[in-house]
Amino acid sequence: PLKFAFSFLLHFEAQRGKIMSRFQTVTDKINFSEEEEKVLLMWQDIDAFQTSLKLSEGRPEYTFYDGPPFATGLPHYGHILAGTIKDTVTRFAHQTGHYVSRKFGWDCHGLPVEYEIDKKLNITGRAMVLEMGVANYNNECRSIVQRYTGEWEKTVTRLGRWIDFKNDYKTMDPQFMESVWWVFKTMFTKGLVYRGYKVMPYSTFCGTPLSNFEAGLNYKDVNDPAAVVSFPLVSDPEVSLLAWTTTPWTLPSNLALCVNATFQYIKIVDKTRQNKVFILLEKRLAQLFPEVSKADCTAERKAELYDILEHLPGSALVGLKYIPLFDYFVSSNPNSFRVVADAYVTEEGGTGIVHQAPAFGEDDYRVCVANGIVSKGEDLPCPVDSNGRFTAEVGEWAGRSVKEADNDICAALKARGRLVMKEVYNHSYPFCWRSETPLIYKAVPSWFVSVEKIKPQLLANNGLTYWVPNFVKEKRFHNWLSEARDWAISRNRFWGTPIPLWISEDLEEMVAVGSVDELEQLSGVRVTDLHKESIDHITIPSQRGKGLLRRIDEVFDCWFESGSMPYAQLHYPFENVDRFEKGFPADFIAEGLDQTRGWFYTLTVIATCLFDKPAFKNLIVNGLVLAADGKKMSKRLQNYPDPNIVIKSYCADALRLYLINSPVVRADKLLFKEEGVSEVVRGVLLPWYNTFRFFVQCVDRWEASTGVSFVPDAAVASSSTNDVDVWILAASQGLVHFVHQEMQAYRLYTVVPRLVEFIDELTKWYVRLNRFRIKGEMGDGDALLGLNVLYQVLTTMTIIMAPFTPFFSEYLYQHLRKLHPNYGSVNSPAVAVDSFGRADSVHYLILPVASEAQLNPRAEARFKTLQVAVTLARVARERRHIRNNLPLKSVVVVAAKAEDVEALEYLKDYFLSEINTWDVTMSTDWEKLCSLKVLPNWKDLGKRLGKQMKEVAKAVNELTFAQISDFMKTGSMVVCGFTLGAEDISVKREFNGDAKRYEACVSDDGGLMVAIDTTCDEEVFMELRSRILASSVQKLRKSSGLVAADKVEIFYEIIASSNKDTPQKVEEATKLVADAIKKYSDTIVKRLRVLPLPVAFKSPHARVVATEALNDSDICQCTCQLYLTQPAVVVCAEKILAVVPSTVAATESTALVELAVMYLQTMDYDRLATLETVSVNLEGTVFKFERGVHYFLMASEKLELM
């Protein structure tokens, strides 16, 4: 016996090893993140990305522009989101037959870098930079530009994004900067560049303008003087316009007053101020008379304060001239001191009339230019020097700090009778982050691109682009372009691309330089670097006798550089001319919604200036990723999970799917929740993996059963006429068609829901409906057909989803390819290197296109009906608390459409199996089996019907079945002269049958009703008993580590659960179980491949693999002890005794039988399984034992004979 057990154990393990040889790493549980790490190593080993590029050389190029991030900070979820979108689209483009170059880019210049250096070196002003030397300062900037590039590459790579870091572009590279020079010169030559003024936040301590970013770093609550000032009309000096300001120091520079043309203004007599006549906004009377805003201010009290003389629309004030406050700029600005209008004037504060000092307010400047008060490019009245002190132009306060002069200016106005009131105003105000001094807003000379000149072309080019979502293009971006103002491209900074413009002292001669060669030709100096320290000393001789031309001090706004990247990344036009021109505009770009006024805008402006084309054809705009609490993600608040931890805990594919399946891909907000990523693992990746694992187990079983290796054949799969096969193949091709359709429209957010739906169909429907067949319970031939179909579906899914889930698709492909005939054909010239099986990576493959032959809308519609009907039956079960494994005696289905009945009749066997019922009745006779109940929306109808509501209610209650049915078809009906639609009334179907016995459920669209018979009796429980027993065996197999191919025998024994269980109770329980097994033996054998037998049939030499004591009342009221054993030889001693010669004595006969039994039971099991007879000489007697007579390979074989 020991020899037998050992030999069989060796056979058992050898068989398992042979079966699992192609799927050693496919286990019950998978750690997706760890498997992704293995995939990364595999990609690295085969240089997958670069190989994919080489394989695609010669294909049509798909051009992609990657917007450059700053490397001075670490990547966050916003970058991860944009990177995922870009990677998904470019992978899809590559796998649909294109060559897709993907180069990473870095934004190296600009404020973020200078800000870091200023903090590091404690630099508080421009003078300190000049003192340390521009070269030294820029070297400091250069040293930190790529501080986090390693972290970026690590994170981006871990997310599965394929992009070239080795051949990246940097905006600080000389070649990139040279192309930027060319862009500028081209625009300058076209007359699209001019010198003007830009009002910017200005630090008087540092003597330099700041960016809006810097201005936003340091806001403080302060008390400032606020004044209401009068402006007497030239036409009637007794009437004054009133303006309110919190910056009295700007009043000496006043050139205009601004109203809102659509607002209502009033002329009043102010009885509290010597009956002076003022004009102000009617809704802002509280500015003069605070008490009028109080609820208890009576009409009598208001009459004591003022009288209203006239109501005036704002438009009536436009053009009125007024007497200036001061005469400093009267002679130099003859077109000033009049009323203009603009919509930026609001009703929220002040007097509704805003004083305009164009040198000290962005809106002031814009409004004054628009109304001809000042002109672009001309000098402005700006009597404030670089240190924030008044110049000699306003002699009274020359040399005084502007903020310190506020009170003195108010005093001067009071002395002139122009100060109406003065108060203290508390508000939030920007301070210089370096010096902690208050900022002012001041006009700074700047260089502009004449965007307004090309506005029609900008709008036309925008119309040539495709955006997802479209409303961002049609509304936000269109409106931004419609209101676009000239673009200030110069910055008074150091670390940036210098503007290549050399000018004379009088600004009359200007030379734009477009290349290093041109600079050498003009100056005689050859340079290799284009930063300030390398070129600022270079002069160009004047062609007009104006001496030497010197470069202007400014550098480019870094947005000008990023907007030039389509050209500069290729060093165009100095290199790659043909490649650029063939690939421009780009096929695709993607960034966040904030780039509407940033990168998208600068790309569009520059491309329009250069070529009168859009810079891109297709664009995906993503929204903002916020913390789960709706707040901005903050390291300080720690209100979001670390991306690296999320990836390690779940996986990158799950994070990718979570992001692109969210509203953020439609330019909406996403409140990031870690559980959302977890749900993708549970709802998408795990079911997908489990389906694959089921396939692997069934392949193992089939190979063990047939002794043949499984080789998939697409033709075999396509030839299947099995209804479920036809459906799942059609559904998979539908998925392929859908993915292509949606990706061509750049709608990533629709793909994941469809994937989830398909995985649900595959796992919960196809595998469920086919599990016994694929497991071989209907024969190995049918199983082979099902395996071919499942392989076809899995490979299709794996390839089509590769751009979305690059890691898991790779994992599956590496396993599935092992089965393919092309696998291992490395040196075969007949097999392409990028064909399925031979290709080393799934990402080398071209995505499949939908097979017209396999598309089958009717098959999909049938199964959709089946799914709805099954779901309704399950809901009805839940209502009555009837478990799904308890059989139903009968089910009634009523359908509105004949095709739904046809579908369920066609798939009746599957329907019966899925809803677990013995019988089903189907009909379209709604009137016989259902009643229709009309539910009016009285809340809304009451407003329409008024007094006739009772009459309508009566008529509705009297509607016939036919009338209601007509309404359900047409969606409207006329009742008492009123047309009622779907928004007015709804219809509820109710089952007419025995409500106590039946539970009915109706589909959402009202087209299908399923009623289940809830009767439960012993006959029903007998079938349940057999199912629970079979299910328990399956669970025991799984928990014992057995795979589908492992053969075992099953034995059971009913024993007492406690002392209270009498022998009679045990005997009764044994009979119940035996009867259930006997009645449903065919079903049980289909599931388990062997019938459970009483333990008395178990061979004493059988090795027990697993055992379990079941205490389940659904089986019996006692304990059911299960045994799983390895198959063991069972010998029939009686039959052996019958062939012992009669000449042998009785005592010797018994000994011979025992010897024969021992001999048979210790034979090699594998050898014995191949024999039909065994001949042996025992003690001089020759025996010939027949399989199936004298011995059996399993106990069940002996039972069959009995």
Short note summarizing the structure:
The chain has 1202 residues and is α+β, with helices and mostly antiparallel strands. The protein is 41% helix and 18% strand.
Would you mind describing this structure in some detail?
There is one protein chain. This protein is an alpha+beta fold and 1202 residues long. It is built from 44 helices and 42 strands. The protein has a six-stranded mixed β-sheet with strand order 10-8-9-6-5-13. Strands 4-3-14-16 form a four-stranded antiparallel β-sheet. The chain has a four-stranded antiparallel β-sheet with strand order 19-18-21-20. The two termini are 25 Å apart.
Could you name the ranges where pLDDT drops below 50 across 5 or more consecutive residues? 1-21
Annotation field: number of helices: 44
- Evaluate the radius of gyration: 43 Å
Can you tell me the overall shape? elongated
Keywords:
single chain, 1202 residues, alpha+beta, 4-stranded antiparallel β-sheet, elongated
Secondary structure: elements and pairs:
Blueprint: H1 2-19, H2 32-46, H3 48-55, H4 77-94, E1 103-106, H5 111-121, H6 126-132, H7 134-144, H8 149-158, E2 164-170, H9 174-189, E3 193-203, E4 208-209, H10 212-215, E5 219-232, E6 239-245, E7 256-259, E8 264-270, E9 276-281, H11 299-305, E10 306-313, H12 314-317, E11 338-341, E12 354-356, H13 362-370, H14 406-415, E13 419-430, E14 440-449, H15 455-462, E15 466-468, H16 470-482, E16 487-488, E17 490-491, E18 501-503, E19 510-512, H17 516-523, H18 532-535, E20 539-541, E21 548-551, E22 555-556, H19 558-563, H20 565-568, H21 577-583, E23 586-592, H22 599-611, E24 616-622, E25 625-626, H23 643-649, H24 652-660, E26 670-671, H25 674-706, H26 714-719, H27 723-744, H28 751-774, H29 780-800, H30 806-816, H31 857-879, E27 891-895, H32 898-906, H33 908-915, E28 920-923, H34 926-929, E29 930-936, H35 938-945, H36 949-957, H37 961-970, E30 972-975, E31 978-981, E32 985-991, E33 998-1002, E34 1008-1013, H38 1018-1039, E35 1049-1055, H39 1063-1079, H40 1081-1088, E36 1093-1094, E37 1104-1110, E38 1119-1125, E39 1130-1131, H41 1133-1138, ...
Parallel strand pairs: 1-2, 6-9, 7-11, 15-24, 23-24, 25-26, 27-28, 35-36
Antiparallel strand pairs: 3-4, 3-14, 5-6, 5-13, 7-12, 8-9, 8-10, 14-16, 17-22, 18-19, 18-21, 20-21, 27-34, 29-32, 30-31, 33-34, 35-38, 37-38, 39-42, 40-41
